[in-house]
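Internal tracking record. Fields below are filled automatically when a chain is submitted to the structure queue. Please do not edit lines marked as system-generated. If the sequence contains nonstandard residues, flag them in the REMARKS field before resubmitting.
Queue: standard
Priority: normal
Entity type: single polypeptide chain
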Amino acid sequence: MKSAAGVLPAQQSGTGSGQAGARRRRVVDSPQMFQPLPLFVGLRYVRARTRKFFVSFITWVSLLGVCVGVAALIVILSVMNGFEGELRGRLLALSAHARVIVQGGEGAAGPGVLPRIAWEDLQRRAAAAEGVLGAAPYAEIQALAMHSPEMLPVQLRGIDPRLEGGVSEAAGSLVSGRLEDLVAGADRVVLGSVIAKLLAVDTGDRVTLLVPGVNADGTPVPRLREFSVAGIFEVGLQDHDGVLALAHLEDVRALTGGDPRAEGLRLRFADALQAPRLARAALPGLPAGLEVRDWTQDHANYFRAIRIEKTMMALILLLIVAVAAFNIVAMLVMVVTDKRTDIAILRTLGASPRSVLVVFLVQGLVIGWAGVLLGVGLGVLLALNVGQIVPLLEGALGFRVMNPDVYYITSIPSELQWSNVLSIGSAALLMTAAATVYPALRASRVAPAEALRYE
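SYSTEM-GENERATED OUTPUT FOLLOWS
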């Protein structure tokens, strides 16, 4: 009996132990318990205060690095978008959104080869098209402006003062004079402010314009005409203020020698960014020998340069995010090394390698994505308030970022584009997510027996 009694408790004990182990395995393997376990442990590691100061320091540096990189990228691209918009506005102040010109431009045909084109009829057709705010014929030639002892090459553009307000902002750019003073046959001209300054002329002075020309046999025949300065305009762009001179359309036509290459039609649309599409739709079935050019073709070099600068700036600033991502890798590797015992215990309790993988993925993603979200919020806040922040910094530091003696643009423009914010945030999220993969894989491959050997 004693042996039976002695055996019975032992059997009962063994049975109880086996049942407890089975219950423990069922609890660990239970989907209700096991599925949130990686998330719970990962968040616990993020919140826990580590005993190793260096690991904690690297964690904060990684988070702040991602935040600063994303914020800087959003602010810089917004400022560059602002400068691009400012340049576009100044370029299009006196330039048309689109032009109808003789096909092939200069040199495509000589005087008399093309019949005289009825630009006024084309103007009426274009003005009635969808999306067109204004249409006006023009004539444009190269000339040499002279006022003793100075002389400058200029671009002489003939305009119709009645229609010019529909295709440009010339009237609003005048410093002195009026466009209405340009009367046919009066030989009056409106000069850019830089031209007027270099020639030392003002309203009421007279300048001589020399227009090169050739006879039918190719003999050079220069044409001289004296003009009275009727006004001065200033746009704030060298391409206009230092190059362009405006006169009445009929006065300039008289200097072209009947060359059809010198004339054209200028169009302005409600949305300048839609000009490439609207320009082709405004005048379908153009007469033979004519073509349509929009402002993106006329000023392609400017905006191609800005696009290249924006791309390179984005790549350079993404390196800040990349460095922060490398910090996340280093931090997680040190955490994995520090938590080898914890990993072994989790594995012993039934956690799968995949669960251990998710634990450290969660820790890395929380740190990285928190930095991205903070950076997006900070970047958007700064980009929307650049106009108020820069003057405060200038006042505090005692210098001007955009010196008015040097730059036409005296303030820092900013144009936040949500597509940029989305692309920057997505790229940063992917980079920080990729940074967590290697340390998490390393954690999932920790062997429990090896980790607990010396514990």
